[in-house]
Amino acid sequence: MNVKQLAESCISYRRSIGEKCKSNGDVLLCFARRIGENKDINNITLDDCTAFLYGEDFKVTASWFIRYASLKWMFEWAISRGYMTSIPLPLDKPKSPDHMKPYIYSKIELKRLFEASMHFQKNRSKIVPECIQMIIKLTYLLGLRIQETISIRLIDIDMESSLVVIHNTKFNKTRLVPFNQQVKSMLCKFVNWRNSQHPNCGKDSALFLDRECQPYKIDTIQDCFQRIREVARIKRDDGAYYQPRIHDLRHSFAVHRLTAWYREGKDVQRCLCHLSTYLGHDDISHTSVYLTMTDNIYKEANKLFNEYRNGTKE
């Protein structure tokens, strides 16, 4: 059995028991391509695995541990079926890197991102700036994961009820995401424009299509976003290894919503339950990951505490 056959067999098995196996599957197929798809699985060496785990930069990132876990499962699965006799992975793991700190975009930076998304291209391509701008706006305004945004179909948008149906996302769930009048007006305008560009595409087609009438892939959007971020002159100045990501739009949505509740004097603890449901989380502890404490949150929380202490707020 060669490496490609083993990877495909593992992926098929995981999916047969109800798992999506998207990220892990991508890792296994990438590993097969990297060391040679036709290589016999019993000829996989420690050097092969080490080179794949560390990558060209030979740096330990969170991806190292994702790759390690995926390969370890595949090799254990192969051993349990008699395909292999040992696991060619390093015995000693490196120290896990510090947890990635989300970047919270300011309202001014968001405006710059939206504007830059219309003129970040140097040459004309199949990528449509209007679509990229709407993808970025919708990801932030609805607090979506980027994969959720680009997976939206025309049929998933209920303008009458002001809802978007998000299908089979993380944890294999489907949820309803409501939007306000401002987002509704923006969506209506975009959908009308989109239909004029692709009049022959049915309601079951993707909301966001390129010039060749194909849905956008997540890698394409992430690459576009990094160029947009550079045009918008947004970068970290805290020494962190990672620059601001498109996923940080979701973090920014959560933090901005929390800050607004503090300013409005809402019962934030109660509202957090609603935010957790809106984001599609099973447990509020998952939502806490998104709530980076910014200066604005500290300021508003301290103000609310002082009002209670001084008896000016019931």
Verbal overview:
- The chain is mainly alpha-helical.
- It folds into three domains: 3-80; 107-231, hpI Integrase, Chain A, CATH 1.10.443.10; 248-309, no CATH class.
- The chain contains 13 helices and three strands.
- A three-stranded antiparallel β-sheet has the order 1-2-3, with no helix packed on it.
- Helix 10 (248-264) runs parallel beside helix 13 (295-309).
- The model has no long low-confidence stretch (mean pLDDT 86).
Task: Offer a few descriptive terms.
314 residues, mainly alpha, hpI Integrase, Chain A, 3 domains, 3-stranded antiparallel sheet, globular
Task: Provide a short characterization of the protein structure.
The protein is mainly alpha-helical.
Q: Please give the count of helices.
A: 13
The arrangement of helices and strands along the chain is HHHHHHHEEEHHHHHH
CATH overall fold name of the largest domain? hpI Integrase, Chain A
Percent helix, as a range, is 40-55%
| Integer count of domains | 3
- Secondary structure class reads mainly alpha
Overall shape: it is globular
Distance between the termini: 71 Å
CATH class category name of the largest domain: Mainly Alpha
Overall pLDDT:
86
Largest sheet, strands/sense/barrel: 3 strands, antiparallel
Beta-strand portion reads under 5%
Main β-sheet, spatial strand arrangement: 1-2-3
**CATH homologous superfamily of the largest domain?**
Intergrase catalytic core
Rg (C-alpha, Å) = 23 Å
CATH architecture of the largest domain: Orthogonal Bundle
Question: What's the β-strand tally?
Answer: 3
Low-confidence stretches: none
